[in-house]
Every structure is written in C-alpha cells, then in structure tokens.
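call fold target=Pvc16 N-terminal domain-containing protein
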Amino acid sequence: MIHEVDEVIERLLKGGALAGSGVDVSFEAPTRDWAARRNTTAVNAYLYDIREDVRRRHRGSAPVEDDRGIVRKRRQPPRWFRLSYLVTAWTKQPKDEHRLLSAVLATLLPRELIPAEELPGALGALRLSMPLTVAGLQTEARSLAEIWSALGGELKPSLDLVVTAPFPAYPEYDVGPPVTDGAAVRVHAIGGSTQDAPERLHRPHQVAEAAAARAAARGLPGRHGSDATAAGPPNPEPAPK
C-alpha cells in the first residue's frame, strides 16, 4: 500500500506546474550523504511518519461487489493510515528552491481528494477516494527540527504532505449466491397434503406462461406479456353441480 501511495505522489509531482520540467523526484532520506551525491534539480518526498487515523476506524463488514454490482464477498472495513512526507526542493540557489516549492504547492493544493479511479493496484480496488493535505498544521509527535536533527542535515524550507490512505483489511469471505427466483406458495384444504397441491406462482413471467397454457388447453386465445401478468390467470370454470 505504501509503495502505491509513493506512485501517486510521484505522478502528482511530475505533473501540474512541474510538467515537462525534468525535475527528479526522490523518496530517499535527505541526509548529508544524499545531498552530496545529488547533481540534478530534485524534489525530495521523505516518508517520516506512519500512524493510524483512529477517527476513521469502523466496525462491522463491508460488501465487495463485482462489475455488475452484485455482492460476492464481504470484508472488514479498511483501516486508514496517515502517511506524512517531508517535501523539500534541491537546487544550487535558495531562490530557485523557493520557486520549486511554489510549483509544488500549486500542483498539490488543488488535489485535496484523489479519486479512486486514479489510484493504482490495491488502493484502486478498494474504490475509495484518498484525502491529501499539504502545508497544514504540524500534528505529529515529532517536530520538523527533530527530524532534520535525526537526519544529520541542516534545516531547510519544507512542505508537510499528509496522505490518508486506506489499507485493506483481511480476510475476505464469500457470501451466498444472489437470489434469482421469486416466491412460490402451495395452498391445500384443511387436513390435506401439500404434495399434490397446485403451486401458485408469484413470478410474473411464470404467471403469464401458466395463464397462456390454460387458455390454450381450453381453446381460448392466449394472453402474453404484461397483459397476462396484469390480468392474472383466467377465472376457473364453475364446478359441476
């Protein structure tokens, strides 16, 4: 799931205001060694925090539908996780880095919600949109200064990108096949048996067929389709006296 979120972020950063710029997108830790090896203009998106968003946790089961909208399986609702990325720009001049960060903001701000059809693999299979926030309030336990200190680098201007991604819950279990037949009722006299009792059908197409068969047996013109369904079977003949 995390690598699929990386794919989404990389696609976003290489599009929008940065389309055609040739800027590299890296997910490596921006340490001193990485900065020394870098020889091209780059945007770094370092994943520094992963934690569950417990406010989105739900109980129960969720249906899994096929392409025709028929429920085939059930599974537990997905668990949602906040993936926090430290987004920085790397060029030779600070002003160029600020321009690059501005382009990143212009690219990400309109994308507050990534629709399911734009998500790859298992993320897309969940058919859920993925929220995205950029440069919001710092809510994680570790401050950015602590992160830079742990990386062994100097503090740089950065954007805090938070993606709230669903993680599929397992296992899935099959459900029974869909009901395709209607109900049928047998009526019998008091003290009689239902084995030889005629079946009264409550399926419209079978009611029409039964009515047409009775009419043909009596030599009457048959009724078909909705007329037979609406009118119902013909009245039974009066019992002989």
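return ok
Residues 222-234 have pLDDT under 50 and may be disordered. Residues 2-174 form one domain.
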